[in-house]
Every structure is written in C-alpha cells, then in structure tokens.
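Regression test case RT-17, inverse folding.

Input:
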C-alpha cells in the first residue's frame, strides 16, 4: 500500500498538470476565437464600405453619362407660344437631337432654330421647304412653295 500511496500523489500531480495544460489550451482557443470574431466584424465593415463605394461609383458614372448625353447629343426645349398648334401646345417639352447627329431635314420636320437676333431662347418651327425650293409668304399668311400653295398642317 505504501507504493500505491506514493504513486497516488504522482498521479494526482500528473492529473493537475494535464488539467493546467487543458485550461491553458482552452484560454488560447478562446483568445483565438475572440480574434476571429473581431476580424469578422472588420471584414463586415470593409464589405459595407466597398458596397457604399460601388454605389457611389455607379451614381457618379450615371450622372456624368446623363450630363454628357444632354450636353452633346440631346437637348430639352420648351415650346413657347401657339404657332405650332395643334401639333405642339404652349409649354410642351421636346427632346431634340443635336445637329451633330441629324442634319437631313425634310418637309414637315420640326426643327429648333437659334440665332442671336431671335433673342435668348430658340424657336420651334416646321420645315416648309428644303434646298432648291422657293418660298413666298404673303401678308395674308398664305405660303407658296415653288409657285404652289402649301396647306398648313
């Protein structure tokens, strides 16, 4: 029994040492798990920041595209006056291609004319003659195109 009694404290010491190692390992695991949670939060914050950046990039790109299109290719013009009734009413808005994209006008097309003598705003008119035709307008509002009377649309 003496021998078993002597081995008992050794076994107890070994058990205590193993328990200490297990407790140390558990502490290390907990610390690593806390680090993983913190890194996960950081990656969530980075992901939110990246998503916000992508939305801002898309918004800025869209705005710049619209500005470029409306600056160089398409114009919005308001109709001021009643000279184009019944086709266009006073206050109507038109999206108009610039002359960079379209310059082959034919009879009946609606055009926007700008000239310094017209004042600040451009005027909206209909094409009644093209190159090579003669237009004669008398004071009774009758229009003649190459000698033939033109009926108003």
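Golden output:
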């Amino acid at each position: 029994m003496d021998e078993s009694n002597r081995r008992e404290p050794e076994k107890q010491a070994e058990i205590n040492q193993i328990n200490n190692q297990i407790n140390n390992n558990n502490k290390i695991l907990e610390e690593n798990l806390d680090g993983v949670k913190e890194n996960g939060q950081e990656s969530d914050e980075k992901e939110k920041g990246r998503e916000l950046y992508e939305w801002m990039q898309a918004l800025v790109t869209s705005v710049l595209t619209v500005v470029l299109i409306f600056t160089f290719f398409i114009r919005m013009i308001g109709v001021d006056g009643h000279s184009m009734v019944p086709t266009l009413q006073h206050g109507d808005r038109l999206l108009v291609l610039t002359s960079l994209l379209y310059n082959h006008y034919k009879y009946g097309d609606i055009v926007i004319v700008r000239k310094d003598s017209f004042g600040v705003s451009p005027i909206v008119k209909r094409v009644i003659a093209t190159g090579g035709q003669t237009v004669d307008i008398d004071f009774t509002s009758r229009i003649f195109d190459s000698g033939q009377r033109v009926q108003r649309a």
